Amino acid sequence: xxxxxxxxxxxxxxxxxxxxxxxxxxxxxxxxxxxxxxxxxxxxxxxxxxxxxxxxxxxxxxxxxxxxxxxxxxxxxxxxxxxxxxxxxxxxxxxxxx
Length: 98
Fold this sequence. Notes:
This protein is mostly helical and 98 residues long.
């Protein structure tokens, strides 16, 4: 599972969103309640302007992990480049996560 998410995240960072979506969906096929994949998928859909899908994934994140916050991402997800962190946080906020 981790490898699939690692690959997915790499696609996201490279802005290869269609490939990221396919990889996140495969991860979710294997583990439908993996909130991290739903969170990343929400950000990816938001980056593409696919608000309906982004909001649906954000709802899944909150269903599985009701205490989720974008501040958790800021504090716990390592990003080499702060610009990438802010882009991801902004995408999560566009998806409706706070």
